[in-house]
Design brief:
Length: 167
């Protein structure tokens, strides 16, 4: 069995990414779930992956370029895995051990220096420990973990598979 051309796979990854972004915006603006700092950080990673796979689909590079795009997707996927695992860890803590909730992100952007804001964004707050939604037994970070694992596998496959020139 041969895999489809990388351009097709990158375009499919782009469509999946757009679905994830659309789903997160629907949960926020239609359902009314406010994203926590870790959720926003995971969105940033998904948006980054979206841009990379779109550029790769448009660019349609040769073997070395396909491997480079694969490396970028792989690394971004690993970074997303780390963020999702951190949030799942926070959600698993007993209420009395979860970090304190903080003011809204808009306020934090106004008052915190950039380095502290980045630390809060990537380490999470008490808001990140709250389970607001689940589907088939998985919370939002559980589903993003599954997606980031898939992105990482996709990136890894693009790095190691033999790319044939299609004419």
């Amino acid at each position: 069995m041969t895999l489809p051309d990388s351009r097709v796979l990158h375009f499919l990854a782009f469509l999946v990414s757009m679905g994830l972004i659309g789903g997160s915006l629907t949960l926020q603006h239609v359902v009314g779930l406010e994203p926590c700092p870790l959720c926003i950080s995971q969105r940033i990673v998904v948006i980054s992956i979206t841009l990379v796979v779109l550029i790769a689909a448009i660019h349609n590079p040769q073997t070395k370029g396909k491997r480079n795009y694969g490396r970028i997707v792989f690394v971004l996927g690993l970074f997303g895995i780390g963020l999702a695992v951190r949030q799942l860890y926070l959600q698993s803590l007993p209420v009395d051990q979860a970090p304190a909730c903080m003011p809204g992100l808009d306020y934090l952007v106004e008052v915190l220096p950039l380095t502290e804001l980045i630390t809060v964004m990537f380490s999470g707050t008490g808001d990140c420990a709250e389970v607001q939604w689940s589907f088939l037994g998985l919370t939002i970070p559980g589903w993003t973990l599954v997606c980031f694992i898939c992105y990482s596998i996709f990136g890894l496959l693009e790095m190691v598979r033999k790319h044939h020139l299609y004419k």
